[in-house]
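Summary of Year 1 activities. Much of the first year was spent building the evaluation harness for sequence design. The harness presents a backbone, in tokenized form, and records the residue chosen at every position. We chose the following record to illustrate the format because it has been used consistently in internal testing since the harness was completed.
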């Protein structure tokens, strides 16, 4: 299956405030859709002024807001400002969990001003250990969140992340345990490379995958390198993707480490290389 849709996460610009000129650069580059990363120093979904500014821009342009990445923290400092800044729907302590649910609802309210299709959601935090009570907590969180999202035309996607709650096997188990048969997956290739391996993890989830996060690493850190900078076998990965029944974009979720003077231009080169690889004959 050739990949015809280019999508980009604004994670590439996460250390800057997301503005109309940044979105315009993405559109001018020929990218059709974006995922906005909900980090308050970048996109403060609770700030009416910033939401209005971006909503006005989207109304006048062809670039589509495909998805939001749910917030990981409530502050502007990656959770460093205070101990309760982390957003975690699998938090067993009820009050903290409800505060996380409320924070995610604020992000979902963006759909009332800028329509989007998907909210990408983590199940727990990085390196979190598995406990049954955390599954129960996540279920208690997702029930109201799914209703809130559906009312705004949004579907929640769970993402595989490096923890014991979000391995492919645990995600499938969670789906059965909660009887949420409509839960679908955003497959993060970099996270899979850090855990069970890209191809086996994707094969386990492929019938549920309807979005992706594409980035690289060297198998030791989740550093969101540009593809071909790390050790992922991209030929094998794209061969596995091509066998999937669902149509999904190659959505780059990159980090600007300052190595490229024009990171957006580099992203376009990466799209071309991935697309060429996806249609190349495989031995």
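For this record, the design step produced the sequence shown next.
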């Amino acid at each position: 299956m050739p990949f015809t849709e280019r999508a980009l996460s604004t994670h590439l610009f996460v250390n800057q405030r997301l503005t109309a000129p940044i979105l315009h650069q993405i559109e001018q580059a020929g990218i059709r859709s974006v995922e906005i990363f909900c980090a308050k120093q970048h996109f403060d979904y609770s700030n009416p002024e910033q939401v209005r500014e971006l909503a006005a821009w989207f109304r006048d342009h062809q670039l589509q807001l495909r998805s939001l990445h749910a917030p990981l923290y409530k502050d502007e400092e990656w959770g460093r400002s205070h101990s309760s800044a982390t957003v975690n729907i699998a938090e067993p302590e009820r009050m903290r969990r409800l505060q996380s649910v409320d924070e995610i609802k604020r992000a979902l309210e963006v759909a009332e001003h800028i329509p989007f299709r998907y909210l990408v959601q983590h199940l727990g935090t990085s390196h979190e250990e598995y406990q049954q009570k955390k599954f129960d907590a996540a279920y208690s969180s997702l029930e109201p969140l799914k209703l809130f999202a559906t009312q705004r035309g949004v579907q929640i996607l769970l993402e595989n992340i490096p923890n014991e709650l979000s391995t492919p096997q645990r995600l499938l188990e969670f789906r059965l345990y909660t009887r949420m048969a409509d839960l679908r997956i955003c497959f993060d290739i970099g996270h899979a490379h850090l855990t069970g391996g890209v191809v086996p993890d994707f094969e386990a989830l492929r019938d549920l995958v309807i979005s992706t996060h594409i980035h690289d690493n060297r198998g030791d850190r989740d550093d969101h390198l540009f593809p071909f900078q790390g050790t992922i076998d991209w030929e094998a990965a794209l061969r596995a993707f091509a066998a999937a029944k669902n149509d999904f974009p190659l959505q780059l979720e990159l980090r600007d480490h300052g190595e490229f003077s024009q990171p957006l231009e580099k992203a376009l080169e990466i799209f071309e290389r991935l697309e060429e690889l996806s249609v190349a004959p495989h031995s």
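The chain has one domain: 6-279. Quantitative recovery figures across the full test set are reported in Table 2.
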